Amino acid sequence: MKLKKNIALSDTGFVFDPSNGNSFSTNPIGLEIIQLLKQNKTQSEIETKILSTYEVDKNTFEKDYYDFVNMLGKLKLNAADEKD
Predict the structure, then answer these.
(1) Tens of pLDDT, residues 26-74
(2) Phi and psi angles of residue 8, each rounded to the nearest 5 degrees, phi first
(3) Quick count: other Cβ atoms within 10 Å of Cβ 19?
(4) Which residues pair with 69 in a beta bridge?
């Protein structure tokens, strides 16, 4: 998933989409995933990073990752929703 280029992130997990004014908060793992997505990391690269940093098994990560990315899409944070 590619995120919009203009998504703003704070160190505390505050996420802001200036294109529509929407904002929300996420936990540290969610923040790290969003930061990695903004760096155009693949799901495999993100999985490797999260599994090596946090105490989570691969199956739990995969389920939670897909749920999280799905939520980001519903919040219209994916680049596919950007207008050029």
Answers:
(1) 999 999 999 999 999 999 999 999 999 999 999 999 999 999 999 999 9
(2) -100, 140
(3) 15
(4) none
pTM of the model: 0.86
Sequence-distant (6+) residues with CB within 8 A of 21 are none
Distance CA 6, CA 60 (A): 30
Q: Where are the domains of the chain?
A: 8-78
- CB contact set of 65 (below 8 Å; sequence gap of 6+): 33, 43, 46, 47, 50
Query: What token pair was written down for 77?
Result: 């944070």
- The span from the first CA to the last CA of the chain, in angstroms, equals 18
In angstroms, the CA 14 to CA 82 distance is: 21
Tell me the C-alpha distance between 35 and 49, whole Å. 12
Length of the chain, in residues:
84
